[in-house]
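> run fold Glutamine amidotransferase domain-containing protein
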Amino acid sequence: MQFLVVENYEHTELGILGRVAAQEGHSWKTVKAHQGEPLPSAADAFSGLVVLGGAQDALADEAYPHLPQVCDLIRAFDDAGKPVLGICLGSQLIARAFGGENLLGLPVEFGWRDVTPTDAGLEDPVVGTLGEGAPQFHWHSDTVTLPDGAVLLASSAMTPVQAFRMGELTYAIQFHFETGLPEVRNWSEAFAEDIRAHTPDWHDRLEAEAARHAEQADETGAAISKAWLSLL
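> ok
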C-alpha cells in the first residue's frame, strides 16, 4: 500500500524522506492541497500519512481552506491506527488537530541548529535516532503548546517543542529532517528574498554552514526517515 503525502506550499518536497522511502521500496501519492487538489476523506486506501511544511501559519484557513480538512485527515489516520508524520507546518497542524495552541509570529529559527531529545525522546524508536543531539535544518517562526496526552520528544535552544508524539504512531516534528543539502540550496534560491528579510547574510555563509553541519544533518535525517517508514 501507498502512504499519502499532503503538500501545503510550493517548493516543499519529501527530500531525504522520499529518497529513503524509494530505497526502502515504499510508494506514495502526493496531493498538492495548496493548489486545490482534493484530499481523501478517509485513511482506508493508504498505509500512513505525511503532512509537509509551508510558509503559512496553521490557522490560515481563509487563504488556505484545506487546512481544517488536513486536521480531520490527521485524526482519521490516528483513529485508524496508521502512522502519521507532520513536519514543520504539518507538526503545527497535528497540534491543532488534537487541541494544542498555535503560537504565531515568534522570532525566526533558521539554518542548521542543534536539536536535543528529551529522556522520552532518547527511548523513542523514531526521535531516538538523534542520539544525544544533532544539527538539523530549521525555518519557522510559529510553534505550539503540547496537546493533552502528548509526549515531548525533542527541543532546541529557541523552541521548547521540536518534536512530540500522540499515542504510539502520530509524530509531530518541527525541524526539517527531510531537508537535505540539495533542498537547502533549492530553498535558498527559490525563497532568496524571504530569507534576506530575516537572515540577510545567509547567502554569504551558506557554504561554510553546510560544510560544518550538512553531512551530519543529512545522515541523521535519513535515520529518522528510515525509522518512521518502518512503522508503515
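The mean pLDDT is 97.
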